[in-house]
Design brief:
The complex is a heterodimer of chains A (374) and B (152).
Chain A lengths: L2 E4 L1 H12 L3 E8 L2 E6 L10 E6 L2 E6 L16 H4 L3 E10 L2 E6 L7 E6 L1 H16 L3 H8 L1 E6 L25 E6 L4 E6 L2 H9 L7 H16 L10 H4 L7 H7 L7 H5 L6 E7 L5 E8 L9 E2 L2 E2 L4 H20 L9 H4 L7 H13 L3 E5 L2
Parallel strand pairs in A: 2-8, 8-9, 9-10
Antiparallel strand pairs in A: 1-11, 2-3, 4-5, 6-7, 6-13, 10-11, 12-13, 14-15
Helix pairs in contact in A: 8-10
Chain B lengths: L3 H5 L9 H9 L1 E6 L4 E3 L7 E7 L2 E7 L3 E8 L4 E2 L13 E4 L3 E7 H10 L1 H28 L6
Antiparallel strand pairs in B: 1-8, 2-7, 3-6, 3-8, 4-5, 4-7
The chains are: A alpha+beta (374), B alpha+beta (152).
Chain lengths: 374, 152
């Protein structure tokens, strides 16, 4: 695969070129965090900034280096761009004794999603598979109208564990372009992942990366793999959680989880939505919306007669079991990508990997002992 | 404690022919179950059963929103577990030790093998297990009578 070596000016040139393809959405400092939004210029990229992430902790930090991709992940993933929190599905209008239904049109403006982390790219593909299975075309349509530019992670954070979920730190899923930024005087390795990406890179007359450059980038990623702040033993996941629904670790969780739903909002794979119908006061018009929902709300599990999960700890268990265990049997892959957002944005600092470890460690202890008869 | 002789004194063993008692003993081990341990889990392979010597165990069912619901308790002198006798050999309920327990754990595969060779032994087992199942069914029917009543 052709690889190019870019300096900062060339990266700026690449961004300008991408701007011709559509609105470029990328990382930038916004209200005290590094968030994804429309990039007005190349200068918007968070040069010299990173962030400190920990359980229930997020702080912007200066790096003292001119890198632009030294941060980990933004609080909110790319989910809202492809799967908006609220979306009109159709409008219905009463006409005489009958009514007409007008399906909503998906807005398909060309966009460039610039700077997806490998874990975020994995999440995007996971959602793509889930929502296509659910026969929900707008996601796929928006995706087809978007360019995807992914940037590998050479500086994983304290809450990162993508290596254990095979979603990073190198870019592992399909995209148009992939970049690696490394070095104190940052350099960028650029490779195409699609035909149009290949054509775009060729058109920029960029210098080819030498074998040595590529080796350096690989070495930086290999170091990143060893620097994951968290770990999750996936070999344990397939049936452990379904067998542990009454584990004391969940009682301990009950003391902490406030069921705020932050983890589901920031999770890049959570896809649950509810349907809302609105009718006009005169009863002539009705519209149906899809809105994000969270399995941490009480009403989420309401079935006639009662709530299936009345305690927050039961909801956390449901969420965790889905991410790490039942998602696997449902969709043939993990529902967690190891981005660590649920840990960072939990106001109680509940750590998915720690909770999971508590379940596995107790599971290893045998509390039944056998002895041969004498 | 934990002797073959002690096992012969368990009510389930009393009255079995000596060769059948010997067959049971051959397939058995002594098991110590710590308080709070989930001994059997709904859906797991039913590969052994227990002749309880000490302690109380509860047969439970997970009811959403009400957590584990204790259906029945099993006491010393009783047999715990009959799913090992009926295909597909999977436990129907969960069982938790309410206290530290001691029991004779009998290997189900070993016993089924012996019952297939010696039909008289198989019959005696079926007969005794049927009594356990019948007791459970009766208890269940009485429970059904007030299962939908409002809590006081």
């Amino acid at each position: 695969m052709d690889a190019y070596l870019l300096d900062t000016d060339m990266l700026a040139q690449l961004v300008e070129r991408l701007r011709l393809e559509g609105e470029v959405i990328g990382p930038q400092i916004d209200r005290g965090v590094i968030a994804y939004g429309p990039l007005k210029s190349f200068e918007d990229l968070p040069q010299g900034w990173s962030e400190l992430q920990g359980p229930g902790l997020y702080r912007l930090q200066r790096t003292g280096r001119p890198s632009r991709f030294a941060y980990r992940v933004a609080p909110t993933s790319w989910k809202p761009f492809l799967y908006p929190p609220k979306e009109l599905l159709f409008r219905a209008r009463k006409e005489g004794d009958s009514f007409t239904v007008q399906p909503a049109e998906t807005s398909l403006e060309a966009r460039v999603l610039f700077g997806l982390r490998p874990c975020e790219l994995r999440a995007l593909r996971v959602q793509e598979r889930v929502l296509s299975k659910a026969n929900y075309p707008p996601y796929q349509q928006r995706l087809q109208a978007s360019w995807i530019v992914a940037v590998a992670c050479v500086e994983p954070g304290e809450n990162c564990f993508c290596a254990d979920l095979d979603s990073g730190p190198e870019v592992r899923d399909d995209c148009d372009l992939k970049l690696v930024e490394w070095g104190d005087e940052p350099r960028y390795l650029a490779q195409a992942g699609s035909e149009r990406g290949r054509a775009l890179l060729r058109g920029l007359a960029l210098p080819t990366a030498s074998a040595e450059d590529q080796k350096e980038a690989q070495a930086a990623l290999a170091r990143a793999r060893r620097q994951m702040g968290r770990s999750l033993d996936r070999r344990q996941t397939p049936d452990l959680l379904t067998r542990k629904h009454a584990h004391p670790a969940f009682d301990a969780l009950a003391e902490r989880c406030t069921a705020c739903g932050n983890c589901t909002l920031v999770c890049p794979t959570c896809f649950c939505s509810n349907l809302e119908d609105h009718t006009s006061l005169d009863g002539r018009e009705a519209s149906r919306y899809r809105v994000w929902d969270s399995c941490f709300t009480l009403d989420f599990s309401y079935i006639h007669g009662g709530h299936a999960r009345s305690k927050p700890s039961e909801r956390y268990r449901q969420w965790m079991t889905h991410k790490l265990s039942s998602w696997q049997s449902q969709f043939d892959e993990a529902g967690c990508v190891g981005c660590g957002r649920c840990i960072t944005w939990c106001p109680e600092g509940i750590d998915l990997t720690e909770e999971f470890r508590a379940l596995t460690e107790r599971a290893k202890e045998s509390t039944i002992q056998y002895r041969e008869l004498t | 404690m934990g002797t073959k002789q002690e096992m012969l004194g368990h009510p389930f063993m009393v009255g079995l022919a000596p060769e059948h008692q010997a067959a049971m003993v051959e397939c058995a081990r002594e098991a110590f179950i710590q308080k709070g341990t989930w001994l059997l889990r709904n859906g797991d392979l039913a590969d052994q059963f227990f002749l309880v010597q000490e302690g109380v165990l509860s047969i439970e069912l997970y009811v959403p929103n009400r957590a584990e619901h204790s259906i029945q308790t099993v006491h010393p002198g009783e047999l715990l577990g009959w799913d090992w006798m009926v295909p597909p050999y999977r436990w129907t309920f969960d069982v938790r030790a309410q206290e530290d327990c001691r029991a004779f754990a009998v290997d189900a595969r070993c016993i089924r093998g012996k019952g297939q060779v010696d039909h008289e032994f198989g019959y005696q087992l079926q007969n005794r297990i049927s009594q356990v199942m019948a007791r459970r069914v009766k208890a269940l029917r009485f429970q059904l009578l007030d299962v939908y009543s409002h809590e006081p």
